[in-house]
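Annex B, item 7. Sequence and structure tokens for protein A, then protein B.
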Amino acid sequence: MAVVIDIAGLPTDHIVFGPSPLAELGAALHVLSEPGHHPARAEWAASVHCALPADLADRLCEADFLWRSTRSDILLPAVPGRSFEEDLDAVDGMSHERYVDAALEISCAALRYGPAGAGAPLTDPVDRDRALDRAAARGPRQRAFVERLLADPVPVRAWIRRLLEDCHEEFFARAWEEVRPRLAADARHKTELLKRKGLPDAMAAVSSAVSVDGTAGRLVIDKMYEGRTTALDRDAGLGIAFVPTAFAWPHLLALHARGWRPVIQYPMADPQQSRYPAPASGELLARRLSALAHPTRLRMCRTLAFAPHTTGELASSLSMTAPEVSRHLAVMRKAGLLSTRRHGRYVQHSLDLSVVARLGSEFLETVLR
């Protein structure tokens, strides 16, 4: 599974790296809503929560569908602004149809990302009812919010802008001044890599989840869903924007809505987060979960967690033939669950505890019990 962005023939000067204060505020708001996703920012989130005025906290709760599950597209500028106000002004320039479609992308299950012709809640009664039903699943306050937005977008758009401005004034301006120099430096570094070494090296520096398929002329972003768009749509704005973030780790966002310029928000390298390894690809994660789903391999995990064993030792302890054990070991090795070492003529296998620990403490505690 992946998000694919067509870039065949795209000039490199249309591949832009730059920080965006609005995108970073969106990331910070997500941290406040889901601090469990961001252990390195937990202390920051707790301090902000403690200092939030009650009225602002209440308004954030009302609109949190814009950033809780993922980020609404209105918070990911296609052209990063030089200031917070410039980013907000660009959002204000959207038509009501485009704005509402983007704002409801999260709570209304990505109508614009669906089949062609879907997603016109301002004008289509069927899409309107669908949008309200999906908003209701988030809660009565969220449904009421969407009802107001669909009834009259003008005052609700002004309300959202004022909410974001209040967040900026109350807590985000200080955070932005702290991270802005590092974000700008990261963007300059990626731009220089693109110029000097080319797109593959620049994408490798962005994330191990982003690769270049030069033969097909496309970017491939490893995600747990599928999507496709193009950076070659002149109506949407030829090009693609890469926006670094200090708050969003480990999330890698890929805006790939039809008719929108693609935007990738990627976590920059941060010493605070260096102790957290890069997440595995979706394919590798599926392989590991599949390998561990077999009861025999679970038994083997317990044995190999305590001490290294040869294939013959495993066969003897599990009352299996050596070829049967070898087949199971091959599956586990392909999933990256084993470490292997040779002692003379013996090859010993052991469970890689650092890998399985990242899959979950419950699994590790069970096999070590």
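Protein B:
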Amino acid sequence: MRSIWNGAISFGLVSIPIKLVNATENHSISFRQIHLADGGRIRYRKVCELDEEEVSGGEIGKAYEDADGTMIPITDEDLAQLPLPTAKTIEIVAFVPADRIDPLQMDAAYYLSANGVPAAKPYTLLREALERSNRVAVAKYALRGRERLGMLRVVDDVIAMHGLLWPDEIRAPQDAAPDGDITVRDAELDLADALMDTLGEVDMDSLHDDYREAVEELVAAKAAGEIVLPAEPEDTGDGKVIDLIAALENSVRAARKSRNVESDGDGDSGMADVHPIEKTSSKASGKTARTTEAEQTTGTAKKTTHRTPTGKTVTRSGSSTAKKSAPKSTGAKKSTSTTKKSAGSAGSRTTAKKTTTKKRTSSSGGTTAKKTAPARKRTSA
């Protein structure tokens, strides 16, 4: 990694030569400005307001603008003559517990690398001292023409430095809190705790920039000449005030479902409850069995539904097949049952039983009536 600053850490009377290296990098996708009419690049040129001519970088200097608009030129030599002891030194001023540093002060992050073999021993000494004391070092340093505040801490085997904002650069949180006295009920806090527990922890290394990936896919698709369809926006509630308890309960259910955690007794685990069927009569039992079979078939078909990337719900062909097959199997069972009843009636010799057989046969359909006709002839004979 290329160093951006060379200097030394001042640790009392100990001086540790170091190199300053950026600890972070920006992966944001940058865009260029173009002329919509012809696609030409739009560029910025530095032009002097007095003669309206373009000026090169070597002809540009610094100046301080006074309240009345007067420009007061300031040269690099003027700045170099200022009494700035931290111009090439990271001067440690104190060692404090890490929780004394307000995260609001955190700025850019750097790695401090030992510069040369002689710096290895004092560098290791400072690193081990910081690690053993469980404290961080507060330091001053100068970078890019101004003095800054920094915090040194140990990351693995390296001393890292976080740039800090000065205390007077942190704004007070005025008017940021909600107005009035807001009361939160214990039930709401319990649900919030349940949601926090359900979401649990996360591996920070697994997090990534979804928006950047979407932009990269968009650029690749446009470069290939493909037509990009707009994605359907997700329903975020449009910022409307809703029932907080209901929102928390739904959030807990969604979090459990996404993490494949079964809910306790709320029916959201995706498993059906099985109840024993009470036996009443043979006819009612057969009807209940057929109804239960149809419901189970339909329930199984529902599990084949899935959601497409566009948000539409699509049901696979298994559902329609299951629904169509249920009536056929039921009709077959009816025919078999009726045939058995007709055969029993054919063995009897009384006219009343003949009449009953005719009624049952006529109500069961044309196919069953044909089957029972020979039975009636044999009975009359």
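Comment on protein B: Confidence is low (pLDDT under 50) at residues 261-381.
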